[in-house]
Specification:
The chain is α+β, with helices and mostly antiparallel strands. Strands 4-3-5-6-7-2-1-8 form an 8-stranded antiparallel β-sheet, sandwiched between helices. The protein contains 3 helices and 8 strands. The protein starts with a helix and ends with a strand. Strand 5 and strand 6 form a beta hairpin.
Length: 184
Amino acid sequence: MTLLIICTVIATSCSDDSDNPDGWRRAPELTYLGDVPVDKDLTAGRAQDITIAHVRSMVSAFAFEISLTGYNSLAPSRPSCVLDKLAVDPPHRFMTSYQVEGATGKAGLQEFMNSWRQMGWKVSYKAGLHSVDYETNVIEGVTPDHYSMNMQVLQEKLLVLTAVSPCFPFTPGDPADAIPLNIP
């Protein structure tokens, strides 16, 4: 099930901005994981800060009280935005996961869809890498600035949120700050 979250998250993450003369350019020999432009001005630290800010705003806007607890199976990371493992310095993205407390199962999933729509996010059901027109155990909400929130029902009740930033240029040694383990 966690693999499904990862596959769903990967699909929304990045590509180049071919209309931006100063931006990072798509290399034709690489397989990109999405259609959102690489944000050339974004750093790992800013991506992490903005991702967590979106998560906090989502929690505070929810219809009833929820909280998030760090989910151990998918620790915070900065994975590549391309499938090709031999790519030199490809763009990366920030990703972290939380278990939802206070909402469960399909009813909780529906509550998140409603909340995200009210926040102006693009919302869809996901099956693997694709948005679908039928109900699944995975939803995705994408903010206007291309941050992706993916929610999955595991074991019929447990809700797990995976938050992902847009892609940013690779910068060696760009340290990330500690993320909050709990978001009340």
